[in-house]
From TrEMBL:
All residue ranges annotated as the PKS/mFAS DH domain in the record: 639-990
Known EC number: 2.3.1.165
N-terminal hotdog fold, as annotated region: 639-756
Residues forming the catalytic site: 671 (proton acceptor), 863 (proton donor)
Lineage: Eukaryota, Fungi, Dikarya, Ascomycota, Pezizomycotina
PROSITE patterns associated with the record: KS3_1 (PS00606), KS3_2 (PS52004), PKS_MFAS_DH (PS52019)
Region (C-terminal hotdog fold): 774-990
Pfam families (UniProt xref): Acyl_transf_1, ketoacyl-synt, KR, PKS_DH_N, RhiE-like_linker
Sorted UniProt keywords: Multifunctional enzyme, Oxidoreductase, Phosphopantetheine, Phosphoprotein, Transferase
Protein name as catalogued: 6-methylsalicylic acid synthase
SMART domains, per database record: PKS_AT (SM00827), PKS_KR (SM00822), PKS_KS (SM00825)
UniProt domain Ketosynthase family 3 (KS3): residue ranges: 16-384
Gene Ontology molecular function: 3-oxoacyl-[acyl-carrier-protein] synthase activity; 6-methylsalicylic acid synthase activity; fatty acid synthase activity; oxidoreductase activity
Amino acid sequence: MKTFLETNDSQVFEMSEGIAIVGMACRTAGSNTSPEKLWQFLLAKQDGSGERISNAISRDYFIHNVEDFDAAFFSISPKEVEQMDPHQRLGLELSWDALEDAVLNPKSLVGSNTADFIGVDSRLLLKDLPSIEPWRGIGSAPQGVANRVSYHLDFMGPSTVVDAACASSLVAVHLGCRAIQNLQSDVAIVGGENVLLAPAITLMLGKAGALHPEGGGAVIILKRLSRAIADGDNIKAILKGSAVAQDGKTNGIMAPNSKAQELEARQALAQAGTHLQTLNSRVNWAEAGLKVVHETTEWTEEKNQPRRAAVCSYGYGGTVSHAIVEQFIGSYFEIATAIAVNSPLDATRVLFLVSVPQEKRLAKQVRVLAEWLSSPAGKAVILKAFANTLAQCRAHHDYRLAFIADGHEAATTCLQAAAEDKAAIGHYISKGNIVGVSSDPARRTVWVFSGHGAQWRHMGKELLLNTVFRQAIDPLNAIVQSEAGFSILDTLASGDFLELSEGIQILTCVVQIGLSRVLMSRGLVPEAVIGHSADRNARTKRPRGVEYWANNTIGPVFLKSAVNAAADDGYRVFVEVSTHPIVLFSVNETLLDRGLDYGDMATLATTKQNTCLDAAIMELAAELYIKGADMEKYDAKEHILVGQRIIDPSTNVVRYTARLSTATKPFPGKHPLDGTDIIPAAVYLNTFHQTTGALLLSNVNFDVPVSLGSDEPIVSVVVKGEQISVLSAASSPEVGGREIWVNHSSCSWSTIATPEMAAQSKAIDVSMVQKHIVHNSKIELQRLHAVLSDLSAALSEKGTIVVYAAPPAIPTAAQVADAAEEFVCETASISILAADEAKLEAVISRVQTFEAQGAALHTLVLDISLPDAAERLLKAIRVLNVPPVLGVIHAAGILEVSSLVETTRDSFARFLAPKVNGALALHKAFPPRSLDFFIMYSSIRQLVGTVGQASYGSSNASLNALATYRRARGDNTVAIQFTAVRGLGMATSTSFLMTELRSKGITDITAGEAFPRLGAS
């Protein structure tokens, strides 16, 4: 997101994030009940006019079945709905349809700050005075159109009707955008309606010349763009800017003011950041003109440039509105949110969940679904995505249908069978009313862990093939082996346990522990648990003492009392967790004895003897859904790396983006590598499997591990004038914190506006800026700039260049000497300093050729990281009796990889000695403005972040700070932040480093590119 404040005289604020349109719904003339139908209607050039209802009107446009409002669906009484304006009915229907189109479960927004702005321009009721009744007041009130939506869907954000005549809808859009930008609402429902039941208004507007030949209603759903991308929404377009005004006094209140409309358009364009200040030089503007499109015309698209459109409206009372809409280049990932039972553990069979308020509505609902699924669009959709939309993005009502299918044809067959109230041979279908009502606890589930008797010989073979089951019982194998003398894994695999009484007790308990983990992994969780006999062990969470378990083993079983206690607490759904049901009959009898019938309760088995476990669990999930139990979500974003799907229009390459942190990582626990938490390979493989649908993957290479971001804890910082203070000194990001941000991402900047910033705070959005400071009521951002143009290494006279190198940077020093060749004619002396005499031999042969060109070469063995190094260096130079020192090249450093948590004080000392101590010694020996140039070799690593470089990054940051200090005092100093130099420097084997840099959009450079000439440094 690009968000900035331009502090010029006009105080233009730009917020280019925009507002995303994520859902749409409409009802227009021509029987267009969806945006898709309307678009095809327009492309086909069809006419939506109908038969005349009045001789005074030449053509009439109708929306059909306005009276067929489903009052029971919205829990509105028949008496009340009779008094409701059709606008209110249409508003409820369109809002619900738009939310479903946005893949938003309306019930998930209950109690939220969702806003509702609806444009309305007619009043139809309160005309028949004798029939006025109490409900007629709110039923006919214009504000009721928006208020009813907020009331019946239980939204608590802004809710109001807009009446700006023909500009009403666009003004509503403007208000919705503002509500989101001002953080009043996270979601906004905006739109407009026009339902005319009598010709009076039509005739009046027609005589005034202000009649539009079409009408109806439309609603769109708005979200902040970043939120929509993060949520994986299907973004249809982006609203970049909007504006609303009044055109003032014209030659008539209903006459447009062209100047006012132009001004409003310019304001909307300015907010959107769209302008014509810089014209495109490739366009012949002298001959170009505007074109009114009468035919279906291809809208050509420039490379990497989204299409943009302007929408304007004028209300006949003088309201002017304008909006800029921009194309969103990309699409959303279809396997977004799923029910856990449809997780990747089962690649073929899919559970479908459908619900309606009453049984009589089911046939129509499933018939519509069957028709769509058998259409070309339905056949093209991913079946699991379709099922997940029904399960997680639709509101669930009291009468429910569940079925399992393994393909489009099977799913269509099941839907058609349900519509005809028939069985689908070979397919699982179940339907019925929920237990109790939506608000009571009856639908909560109790797990019953049964005891001895559920075992059967081959129960372990399939269970051990289930990864979740195996992982759950693996840690118990060694314990049982030690305490009981047998392997639970081997015994379950062989089935040789029926004669071992004690072994069966242990195996039954272990199997139930594994089964419970499998159920929870598929989204099935209990609200209460009951243990029967020895298998109370499997359901317990708290460790118990010896006396407790002894009494548990020899004491009586109080299963009936436990079931009655659960029933007293309102529980009505019981699931036996075992490999075969043995206590369900007792539970059932206990509940029947209480006077409950089968419609008031449910007793269900996890699986049965000789039954496929995955099939049994899926059918259990279906039955629990029918009884009203909540299905836990399985979010694909928590298990794969795929987020927003973006298509590069220039290459057609598909890219997926995702934001990762410790809170959103797609795997449990930690997977550290050298102290850094990384994404494990299994997550990549699952990602590739889910996005491609491939059964086999080949040629999968892992070059660079991806580390996690952070949850960005807050650090409190107080700014007073030039002073910055941190409430906790240890958490100050300015004190050695830069590398912590890179390796651990534990800190990031944010601001709290001071009173003098209050006037600007509403217009500034810096939520996505990584680091910023408010200073003198201005926002200062850290940015990279081009190389300073006034840097020069030209020598003022013949003199000496001092080059300092410490192992393993000696090869770099030799390359520096080569790069200094152009100075040889101007240089009387080159002094190479090093702390190790043996290392100098590799350099001497490469620079001796300079002596033939007139430059003397001197080598000094001197460790200038020592406290008295500056004095010793100056003394050595005096002894050599060389010409005055004119320039310094500091190219020292060492390489050592370690994570921040593993970096010791000694490690920091080793890093800082050659780079920082050496630089400070050279700085002391040659203070600012005493040389022609002072060059230090730094690195880009602390800017882009590389793994295991905490000490190295800290030392390079010190060089950067020293360069800034000397330049502020007029010195020609520069710290060159190099990327990797191919075949040179401290990391001569750079294949891994190159891969890591490329992952950040950076490449290495050649020696020629790094050291073309010192004068260009």
